[in-house]
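In the previous chapter we treated chains in isolation. Here, by contrast, the input contains two separate entities that must be folded as one system, with a combined length of 664 residues.
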Amino acid sequence: MRIAIDVMGGDHAPDKILEGALQALPLLEPDDKLILVGNKELIAPHIAHTSQHDRIQIEHASQVITMDDSPIEAIRGKRDSSIVRMVKFGKEGHADAMISAGNTGALVAAGVLMLKPLAGVDRPGIACFLPSVKGGVLLCDAGANIQPKPAHLYQYAVMGSIYAKALGKSAPPPSPTVGILNIGSEDEKGTQLVKDAKALIQADPSINFVGYVEGRDIPRHPCDVLITDGFTGNVTLKVTEGFTTAVLQALQKEAMSDADFAVKLKPFLGRALKQYDHEEVGGALLLGVQGLFFKVHGSAGARAIKNAVVAAKAVGKLDVNAAIEKRLAKGA
Amino acid sequence: MRIAIDVMGGDHAPDKILEGALQALPLLEPDDKLILVGNKELIAPHIAHTSQHDRIQIEHASQVITMDDSPIEAIRGKRDSSIVRMVKFGKEGHADAMISAGNTGALVAAGVLMLKPLAGVDRPGIACFLPSVKGGVLLCDAGANIQPKPAHLYQYAVMGSIYAKALGKSAPPPSPTVGILNIGSEDEKGTQLVKDAKALIQADPSINFVGYVEGRDIPRHPCDVLITDGFTGNVTLKVTEGFTTAVLQALQKEAMSDADFAVKLKPFLGRALKQYDHEEVGGALLLGVQGLFFKVHGSAGARAIKNAVVAAKAVGKLDVNAAIEKRLAKGA
C-alpha cells in the first residue's frame, strides 16, 4: 500500500509530521511505501539517517496552504501546494491513501473538486470517533458540510453504517446502530433539518436507526454512528476535546505535587488518555469521496500522524467506498 | 422577596424539589417568602413539620406539564398546570421570581406567551454557565431559540453582557468580553448566521467583542459571554455535562477500590465537582422576558433547587431587566 502524507500541514509541520511518518513505517508491511509531499529541502535531512529509503518517496511541493487561506481559492490558486500535489498524486493512482493535518476547509474542497464524490453521494462528510465506553461513537459530519440538506444527513447515516461495520466497531448484526444528535429525544424536538433527516433515515429499513440522541449520553455509547450537521458536529468534537482535556490536565497538575498520588493515578490516566486523547484516534476519514483521504487534527503531533498512517493501512483493506457506491449509486 | 417554585416539574418532582426549597429557606432573608406551586395534597405532608409556615405559601395546581407535552399546546391547554399557574401568579405581581425544572419548551413558551418579551427583545434566550477556569462562561442561547436570526444573536450579546456585568462575573471594565461560538477563529469560518451576527455585534461599540471562539477553548475562559444559536448551545451544554461527568465518575469508580487513592482524590473531586457539577450552577435565566424566570436542569435534585433559589434571590437584587430595556427598547 502507498500512503501519501502532506508533510507541510498542521501546527507542528514539518518536523512532527515527518517524525510520526517514520515511526509508522515499521508498523506497516514490508512492501508498504510512504510518499512524503512537501518541500524536499525540509524533508531530506529528516530521512537522511533512515535505513528505509526504498520505502520512502519524496514528492516536492513548493507552496503551503495555511489555516488562514480561503479553501476554494487556495485549492485553485496554490497548484504547487502540498495538499494539491498530494491529492493530484492520489487521483492519478499513485497513492492508495492520503493524510493531512492541514486546513480542513481546503482538504474538503480538494476532496470535492479534485477527487470528486462517490457515485450517489451529494456531499462528503468528515467521520471521526467521539470517546465512549464501547470504543467510540462514529460522528458524521464533523465539519465538512456546515449547512446540509436532509438528504445529506441520510447519506451520512448510510455511509457511517457501512464504515462502522467495516471497522468492526459496531453493535451485533443486523448492522450498526444509528442516532441523530438532537436537543431532546422526543419526536417534537429539534430543527426541521433534524426532523426531515429522521423521516428519510426511518424510511430505509437497512439502517438500524435508534432515534434522537442527546449530547450528554454520547459517553455511554447510545449508538455506533451519530449523525449531525457539520457545524454542530465540529463544535461537539471540539467541546468534547476541550473539557475532557481540561479535567485530565487538572488531575495531572494535582498529581505533580504528590508522588504517592501520581503513582495511584498513573494507571487511570493511562486508560483515560487512551480513551479521550484525540491523538489516539488516528484521523478522520473524509467519507464519500473517491480515494481514502484522512484529516488529522491541526495540532497533531508525531503520535497522531503515526496512528493515522496505521489507521489508513487498516481502512485501506476494507473497500468501504465500493460498498458505499453499491448502496447509494443511482440505479444501483 | 417572593420566590415561586414549580414543585411538579422535573424528574424528581415533587419530593426533591420540595426538599431543596426547604433547604434554601434558611439561606434567604427573614422576610423572603417561598410560594410552592403544585398539588397541595402532595405538598402538605412535606411542610407539615417545618416551623416556617409564615414564610411558605401553597398555590394549588391540579395539572402537570410532562416532558412529552408539546410546549405551546400544553401552555394553552393545561391552564391549571403548575407551570401556567406559577407564571400567571408571577405575571400578576404576586411573585418576584419563578423557578422550574420542568419541560424547557413549555417554560420558554410560557415566558414568551404569558410574561412577554422585554421591550426591544424579539426572542428570549436561555443563559447559563459553562465551566471555566474563571468561574464560568455565560452561554446564550442554551435552547430557547433553535433557529435564530442574526438580530436575535445580537440581542443575546447585549443581554448577556448586561447580565454578566450585573453578576460581577466578568472581565475588568469596560465590560464583559463577548465571543461567538464557531467552528474556527478565522473570518471566513462559519455559517451566514454567525457572520451576520458578528457584523451586528461588531457594529455596536458598547459590546466588548473578542471574535469567534472554538468549543475546545471554553474551559480556558476565552470570553465572559458566549453567543450561539439555541440548537448548538443546547448540544454544547449537554456534551460538556456528559463528558465531564463521565471522566469524574470513572475516577470515582477507580477510587472505590483503593482507600488511599480515595483519600488523595477527595480534595480534587471536591473542587472538580464544584466547577463541573451542573447542580452547583443555580439554574439558567430565561433572558429577555418580563420577570425573573429560572429553568433548572430536568434531573435537578434538592441541591440544584436550593442553589437556584439562592441564585434567584441574588439576581433579584440586580434589576437586569430594566438595564436591558434601557439599552434595547426602540427609541431608548
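Chain B has a mean pLDDT of 93. Chain B touches chain A through 51 residues (CB under 8 Å). Compare these points with the single-chain example from earlier in the chapter.
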